[in-house]
Amino acid sequence: MEKSKDIISRAMADLLEIPKDLVLDIPKITLIGKNELFLENHRGIIEYSSQRMRINLSRGFLEILGNQLEIRALLPDEIKIEGDINSCRFFD
Amino acid sequence: MINKFFDGLGGVITLLVKGKKQERIINLALSRGIYIWDIKWQGNHLSLRIRSSALQAFQAIAAENDFELEIVGKRGLPFLKTKVQRRIGFLGGAAFFVLALYVMSLFVWFIEVDGNKTVDTKQILQSAARNGLSQGSGKWRFSGSDIENAMLRELPRLTYVQCEIQGVKAHIKVVEKIWPDEEVLGPCHIVADRDGVVEEILVLEGQSIVKPGQVVGRGDILISGIVYPPVPETSDVSELLEPEEPSFVRARGTVKARTWYEGYGECPRRVETKIFTGETALEINLKTPWKEVCLKKAKLSKKSFYKLARKPIMANTPLGMWGIYINKYHEQEKQVQSYTEAQAIEIAREGGFNNLRRKIRPGVQISDSYIQVLSSPSDAIVRIKIAIESIEDISRVQPIE
Fold this sequence. Notes:
The complex is a heterodimer of chains A (92) and B (401). With 92 residues, chain A is an alpha+beta fold. Chain A has a single domain, classed as Sandwich (Immunoglobulin-like), CATH 2.60.40.2000. Chain A is 21% helix and 51% strand. Chain A has helices spanning 2-16, 20-23; strands spanning 28-32, 36-40, 45-48, 52-56, 61-74, 78-91. The radius of gyration of chain A is 14 Å and the shape is elongated. The mean pLDDT of chain A is 87. The radius of gyration of chain B is 44 Å and the shape is elongated. With 401 residues, chain B is of the alpha+beta class. The A-B interface holds A 44-45, 47-50, 70-76 and B 23, 26-27, 30-31, 33, 35-41, 46.
């Protein structure tokens, strides 16, 4: 059921040329160099340490590995992370 | 930037969260709409910032979930009050300084007079003082236009006065009246203004006394204002009547004469001059009514020569004269210049001519000039005598007494 709704939403977004992050509620990541990361459409923080951060998403979670990771700003939909970012991985 | 400004306006608190699984508090705060930022680990504790308005709500979350909170920093306008209370003396001093500066700026401390040539500056300042503008007078006590009008009334030799107040300085700009030459209207003679040989004479009114080629001295009558009636040409003695009374007229006319001027010029064969090297040294002295204190000393070389330009900036206060002297030392170096005899004569001649030009009235036509060297070639100074022959109008009006 969830999958079919997702397929329809995706098809509508393609047809109407609407950004998918708005229609499908999927995360949008902006990475500036390796020091700044903006994430939109998150669902809260699962784990936070200065080397590892796990952020909840609508489907799965995002794992960020690095050094001296700091949460510069935290809003209900947006998060800004600063530090030496080494990797970003998605987990379903 | 705007966010930071509003955060500062509302007040920002930096907290240290202690307890287990501190990241949980982030999600809890987020779910309750508390804006948090600058979240980082400090050892085993989580440091974060919140707005001071959200402190109570955040404390409630911490209490519900067994977290311990420690306030480590407070920043912004609401917390400024305690800082102000701590530094009340400093702030009071700053406020007093601003107030004193404002009060001092309400008075005139400097008066500058400009544009006067014949009218004495002291006279202008006295007139301004009588009308309320003097050193130390309050700016609210006088009006610039009233002073201008009053000064024009008091000083008839002035045609225009502008009184401009710029900060603590009053600038009085004056323009003097130009009076026409006094013209003699009654009967008068034309007399010689200086010695000379008459070259040309043109009589418009009066009776000519001299002829071209005649030598005249200073003060001699050239055209007489006493006109005698013509003697009738008759041989009959019986027709001779009593001589008529002479008429007095205002003699008019021009008398051009050959005149001579003598001048002197000299030039040393060896001249030592001091020329500016362009190097300057600055010295600043503070002048108080009791003592003059050096604020900055100039570094002067003992081998060099200096010319001092002193610029005082003074203010007459109720406590006495206060001010600053800015001494600017311009470095000079000695230069020796030797001249040949011909060069020295030429320089002396130029100097002599310049001296003579000051004696000669403008518009005088120079017809000839002579130079006589007075010094011997072995003299250290070349001295010359210059004689100029000119043709000029020597007439001068002299009333008949």
